[in-house]
Amino acid sequence: MTLTITNIKRPNSDTTESVTLENGVIKGWNLPAALTAEGETIDGQGGTVAPALIELHAHLREPGQTEKEDLASGLAAAAAGGYGTVVCMPNTVPVIDDPAIVRTLIQKANGLGFARLHPAAALTKGQNGEALAELGYLKDAGAVMFTDDGRTNENARVLRLGLEYAGSLLDSAGKGMVVSVHAEDASLRADGVMNEGPVSEALGLPGNPAAAEAARVARDLEILAGLHAQGSKAHLHIQHLSTARALELVRGAKVRGLSVTCEVCPHHLTLTDEALRGFDAMYKVAPPLRTQRDADALLEGLKDGTVDCIATDHAPHTRAEKERDLLDAPSGIAYIELAFPLMYTRFGQTLGLDKLLDLMTAGPARVMGWPTPALEAGAPGDLVVLDLETEREVKPAEFRTKAKFTPWAGEMLKGWPLLTVVAGQVAYRQE
Ligand code: DOR
């Protein structure tokens, strides 16, 4: 099957080109018509072509919570957002802690034709934080990362064992498996439902202090450093970093040469605890929306390379759940479909297109030890064509995710995907 996309430009180029994909890979650029006439041709409408985006943090809710999301809705939403690859989180019902579940999810996703799925598996059985899951078997089944995300790893010794064990499961380049952590100290977070500060005080809501994140990051970095001192290849990835102080700790750890990476979410860059003033649980997320000072620091972290990648933590819940009051509603914001347009519209100028794309393609690939996504012949046929010019309104009713509501509803954004291609096949096409 041959697919040619005409009328596209590479990033920061004014030259209109065409690319041809065959057997799941890029066959070549600007091939003579005789070589492309057989297959399908799609007009790229003058859009900018890039490797398809990679999401390291999405909650697709399968198995067990398909009223919130399922593989079909979540991976279709991802493809519509320009993503060709998604790592899904294991805090499902049951928890993804069994090789059979990993295999089933991969098989099911392969048949859908949307984004590629790489499941993360639980670090501990049932995400109970106490007994390690069967990490070797989970890896063999296709799990690419271990995490108890959704929960926090309170037992430091168990996390240490998990990091050590995962660090002994090496890929062909000698890199250990990634353990990613939701870094919040549960006892400091306590029953906090939003960032602790003047806004939580004014609203009379229990606060979750920045120290809950920073203290946990400090602990986990010390555990990692201790393992490295013993020659371990453990790799720690810190999820959804939200505070200036925790970022500073990661910066220091990188200077020390630790094998640590971190991600930042667009919601922590674009929203602050001020958003909670309307008592709307749509803005309840863990870790919580912080202050403008934190958001500014995170943006600096993106610029200076402390932050390795952008992840969305796409966390769909039903509207009924999110309409509960702030104390009862579950945490999570779902917006995988608009993450790139949001980032491009808000920070495209500040970061530059190349850096932004790096943070959403090569950056996540580096975290995982995957090959650098490329546009050259022979590279995987995973591409996105972006419309960097046209402003379009965010219309949640048209979302593919089951969570058809978002903090950015009604906003005008540009950078919308026109076309997403995965393994040489169309996974999304703008209507
Ligand atoms: O806001 C969040 N929602 N943070 C998490 O860690 C879990 C996630 C979810 O599963 O809904």
List the helices and strands and how they pair.
Elements: E1 2-8, E2 17-22, E3 25-29, H1 33-36, E4 40-43, E5 48-51, E6 53-58, H2 71-80, E7 83-88, H3 99-110, E8 116-121, H4 135-141, E9 145-147, H5 156-168, E10 178-181, H6 186-189, E11 194-195, H7 198-203, E12 207-208, H8 210-229, E13 235-238, H9 244-255, E14 260-264, H10 266-270, H11 292-304, E15 309-310, H12 319-322, H13 339-351, H14 353-360, H15 362-368, E16 383-387, E17 392-393, E18 412-413, E19 416-422, E20 425-429
Helix pairs in contact: 3-4, 5-8, 8-9, 9-11, 13-14
The chain binds (4S)-2,6-dioxohexahydropyrimidine-4-carboxylic acid.
Residues 59, 91, 149-150, 182, 285-286, 315, 330-332 line the site of (4S)-2,6-dioxohexahydropyrimidine-4-carboxylic acid.
Task: Briefly say what this structure is.
With 431 residues, the protein is of the alpha/beta class. Helices cover 32% and strands 20% of the residues.
Category by helix and strand content: alpha/beta
**How far is it from the N-terminal to the C-terminal residue, by CA?**
23 Å
Strand order of the largest sheet: 6-7-8-9-10-13-14-15
Largest sheet: 8 strands, parallel
Strand content: 15-25%
Ligand set? (4S)-2,6-dioxohexahydropyrimidine-4-carboxylic acid
Backbone shape? globular
Describe the structure.
It is a single chain. The chain has helices at 33-36, 71-80, 99-110, 135-141, 156-168, 186-189, 198-203, 210-229, 244-255, 266-270, 292-304, 319-322, 339-351, 353-360, 362-368; strands at residues 2-8, 17-22, 25-29, 40-43, 48-51, 53-58, 83-88, 116-121, 145-147, 178-181, 194-195, 207-208, 235-238, 260-264, 309-310, 383-387, 392-393, 412-413, 416-422, 425-429. Strand 1 (2-8) and strand 2 form a beta hairpin. It has one domain (52-373, 395-405): Metal-dependent hydrolases (TIM Barrel, Alpha-Beta Barrel). The mean pLDDT is 97. The protein has an 8-stranded parallel sheet with strand order 6-7-8-9-10-13-14-15. Strands 3-2-1-4 form a 4-stranded mixed sheet, with no helix packed on it. It is built from 15 helices and 20 strands. The protein is globular. With 431 residues, it is of the alpha/beta class. Helices cover 32% and strands 20% of the residues. The two termini are 23 Å apart. Helix 9 packs parallel to helix 11. The structure holds (4S)-2,6-dioxohexahydropyrimidine-4-carboxylic acid.
